[in-house]
Design goal:
By secondary structure, the protein is mainly alpha-helical. 39% of the residues lie in helices and 6% in strands.
C-alpha cells in the first residue's frame, strides 16, 4: 500500500474510509460525558491521575496530539471527538507498569 509509511520508527496509515471526505456524526456530547467520568476517576485516585498526566504529557511532548483553539472552525460533518479513557490490565497494575489509553 502506498499510503503506509514509516515515521520516526513507527508506521502511519490513513483510516480505512471508503469515502475520502466522510460526513461524521456529531459525537461531542458523548465525548463530553466520557470526559466528566474520567475527571471523577482522576479526582478519586491520585496514582491513576499521576499515571494519566505522565502519559498525556509524553504524547503531547512527542507531538502525537495537541490542543486546538477554542474558535477553530470546522466544515459540517468534518469533526470527530476521540473520547478516551485510561485503563490498565491486572498485570500492569500488579507490575506497576502504568496506564494505557
Amino acid at each position: 500500500m502506498k499510503s503506509i509509511h514509516e515515521r520516526d520508527g513507527h508506521y502511519e496509515m490513513p483510516l480505512p474510509l471508503k469515502n475520502k471526505d466522510p460526513i461524521l456524526p456529531d459525537n461531542k456530547d458523548m465525548a463530553y460525558k466520557k470526559l466528566i467520568h474520567l475527571k471523577g476517576r482522576l479526582e478519586r485516585d491520585s496514582n491513576y491521575k499521576e499515571d494519566y498526566e505522565n502519559f498525556m504529557r509524553d504524547i503531547i511532548d512527542k507531538g502525537y496530539c495537541g490542543r486546538i483553539s477554542d474558535n477553530h472552525e470546522y466544515k459540517p460533518g468534518a469533526r470527530w471527538f476521540i473520547p478516551h479513557h485510561g485503563g490498565s490490565s491486572f498485570k500492569e497494575v500488579q507490575d506497576k507498569s502504568g496506564l494505557r489509553l
